[in-house]
């Protein structure tokens, strides 16, 4: 079966952003990974216009040209590297921010968060997908022909929560230990899969191909994804596993 057009699916608004559904799991993953919550608003950012449209649709909003700008972003791992990229910002006004902080443990007005995602763990792939697209990085390692996937954030409590989500996923996704970045934040990667999945030297390695299929399963039908991030992960896995281009979409 060929891949569905990225524009073919219309994302319907959530009746309540705190009601449990695949859409809200994805939405709150994006907010937690690259957003802010205050008593009277929620802000979430993305560098992918398609994802911005999906997030706005979930919140029942119409995007405007004012939502878009070109932003300078420091590298997640090295503050001396700055890149310029599109940034789309979706804002939701009202008391939902206060409610979200209470229900999900998201940081409110910059205060420490507790990150309680139990209520949306029924839709773990969509939640992790939102987190991956918001604060994850994907790279293809030419030297080893392998795929690197990592999560980077200023809040180590969020990253510890993501590690727990991955450890309890099906299939389980082993991760490396948390480390500090040179930019002052924290990061961890999926356990190095340079030699494939399975235990090597007593250390379990992540099946990155299996992770890619799991985290984007059903995304064509739901429309809940960043086109840029999904393509980068899929293409990297296809290169690392000698699969045909587009095979992960079939």
How does this structure look, described?
The protein is of the alpha+beta class. 32% of the residues lie in helices and 22% in strands. Strand 3 (68-74) and strand 4 form a beta hairpin. The model is unreliable at 1-5 and 69-73 (pLDDT under 50). The strands form three sheets. It has a four-stranded antiparallel β-sheet. A four-stranded antiparallel β-sheet has the order 5-6-8-7. Strands 9-10 form a two-stranded antiparallel sheet. It has a single domain (22-249), classed as Homing endonucleases (Endonuclease I-creI).
Describe the structure concisely:
The chain is an alpha+beta fold. It contains 8 helices and 10 strands. It has helices spanning 22-33, 49-58, 96-104, 124-135, 156-167, 208-215, 219-222, 227-240; strands spanning 35-38, 41-46, 68-74, 82-93, 136-141, 146-153, 179-180, 186-189, 198-200, 203-205.
């Amino acid at each position: 079966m060929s891949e569905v057009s990225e524009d073919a699916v219309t994302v319907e608004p959530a009746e309540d952003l705190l009601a449990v559904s695949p859409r809200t799991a994805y939405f709150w993953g994006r907010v937690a990974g690259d957003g802010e919550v205050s008593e009277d608003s929620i802000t979430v950012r993305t560098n992918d216009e398609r994802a911005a449209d999906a997030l706005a649709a979930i919140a029942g909003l119409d995007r405007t040209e004012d939502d878009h700008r070109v932003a300078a972003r420091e590298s997640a791992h090295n503050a001396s590297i700055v890149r310029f990229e599109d940034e789309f910002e979706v804002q939701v006004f009202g008391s939902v921010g206060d409610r979200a902080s209470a229900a999900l443990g998201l940081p409110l007005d910059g205060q420490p968060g507790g990150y309680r995602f139990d209520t949306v763990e029924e839709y773990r792939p969509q939640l992790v997908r939102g987190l991956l697209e918001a604060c994850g990085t994907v790279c293809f390692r030419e030297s080893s022909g392998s795929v690197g996937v990592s999560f980077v954030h200023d809040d180590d409590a969020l990253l510890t929560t993501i590690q727990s989500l991955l450890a309890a996923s099906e299939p389980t996704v082993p991760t490396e230990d948390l480390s500090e970045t040179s930019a002052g934040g924290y990061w961890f990667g999926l356990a190095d899969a340079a030699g494939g999945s399975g235990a090597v030297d007593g250390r379990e390695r992540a099946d990155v191909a299996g992770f890619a299929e799991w985290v984007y399963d059903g995304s064509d039908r739901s429309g809940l994804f960043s086109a840029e991030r999904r393509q980068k992960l899929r293409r990297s896995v296809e290169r690392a596993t000698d699969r045909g281009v587009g095979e992960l979409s079939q």
